[in-house]
Predict the structure.
Amino acid sequence: MSVPKIPSTFPFRISYSVGESFSCFYDLRARNGRVIILENFDSLDPNSKVSSFSLMVIEFSHPNSAVALMEDETARIGHMGAELKIDTQFGDKQLIAYESSPYSKSGGDVYYSIRVGVLVFRIAFALVSLADQDDPGALTVDLVSSILHIYRDVNERY
């Protein structure tokens, strides 16, 4: 599988990558989707508040299937945490949630689901060492922009 080249300036390294398309998750198969990229990244900076993230890019055969999955994601994200409000829109629809760690008040996860045509990007960030004044959305919004820039042509690769 051909995946985008990660620029050397990107502050994360790939720790795990799946090299072929697959459709093994129930909610994706039900919507006739397939995962075309599944990659996990670790931070290169031990002082970073973003310790790691995972990226899943899902491709659907029809835009209505992608829209339906995003409707499913609305309910899923509603159960995980309050939706964060960010002015920047990266695609046709964007859903964001922050969930605090049950073990530490200084940690948590930020979940993004972004639809761009027939593609849905699911990005999950692990945050650590958060202070009271830290905004999880502000800590991750630039990274989301970078990730989508790196993978912007992924639908033309298949």
